[in-house]
Design goal:
globular, 214 residues, 8 strands, TIM Barrel, alpha/beta, eight-stranded parallel sheet
Length: 214
């Protein structure tokens, strides 16, 4: 079933859109089913889960940290994480840079932009994001490669479309000056088709691949 779901999604999205299989709360056996079907990019939202899985599962998996990351937890994933989606402060970025340097590597990061109408979501407002972007130029062990956003959990397609469009437009404005900013991570199981339509280059899909969380 997992392989079937995965193949269906992969066949339906453009080749230039990266699919992050959100494996949070899922057992290693489920991840291996997706792996055997060709999936290599997986997203976790808890540091301890990701570190435990990375130790056991195949080494060529690219692990994306998609949840809210606390500064004091960066050290547990700095040696292997492929992309950190939710950078929402300069303090966090400094810590990622410090820990990446200890492992002699460069960690790719996305700045999380607050686009939703919900107070429970994290993120920078666009002006603060520009300040962080500017400050990040001083760091040698991180690379800001784009932006991430989570739309409102709403049945209003008009609202979600507007939020996605806003993030894409913001990303395009910045990428004129800095060609590294090619990733726009937006869209999940319930709205990824709309996100792609609005210009997403990376989607985070969990339940549509693995089934509903138990």
């Amino acid at each position: 079933m997992i392989a079937e779901n995965l193949n269906k999604i992969t066949a339906s999205i453009p080749l230039d859109v990266t699919l992050v299989a959100v494996s949070k709360t899922k057992p290693n056996s489920d991840i291996m089913q997706a792996y055997k079907a060709g999936q290599r990019v997986f997203g976790e939202n808890k540091v301890q889960d990701m570190a435990a899985k990375a130790e056991i599962l195949p080494q060529d998996i690219k692990w994306h940290m998609i949840g809210h990351l606390q500064t004091n937890k960066v050290k547990y994933i700095a040696s292997f994480v492929s992309l950190i989606h939710g950078v929402d402060s300069l303090k966090l970025l400094k810590e990622i840079n410090k820990r990446a340097a200890q492992h002699n590597r460069t960690i790719d990061c996305l700045l999380q932009i607050y686009i939703a109408q919900e107070e429970t979501k994290f993120g920078l407002d666009p002006m603060d994001a520009l300040d962080v972007l500017s400050a990040a130029k001083e760091f040698n062990n991180i690379r800001i490669v784009g932006f991430m956003g989570m739309a409102s959990n709403s049945t209003s397609e008009t609202l979600v479309r507007k939020e996605f469009r806003g993030l894409k437009e913001f990303a395009l404005e910045q990428s004129d000056a800095n060609n590294n900013l090619s990733i726009v991570s937006m869209g999940m199981s319930n709205d990824y088709a709309l996100a792609i339509e609005m210009g997403s280059t990376m989607i985070r899909v969990g339940s549509a691949i693995f089934g509903l969380r138990s």
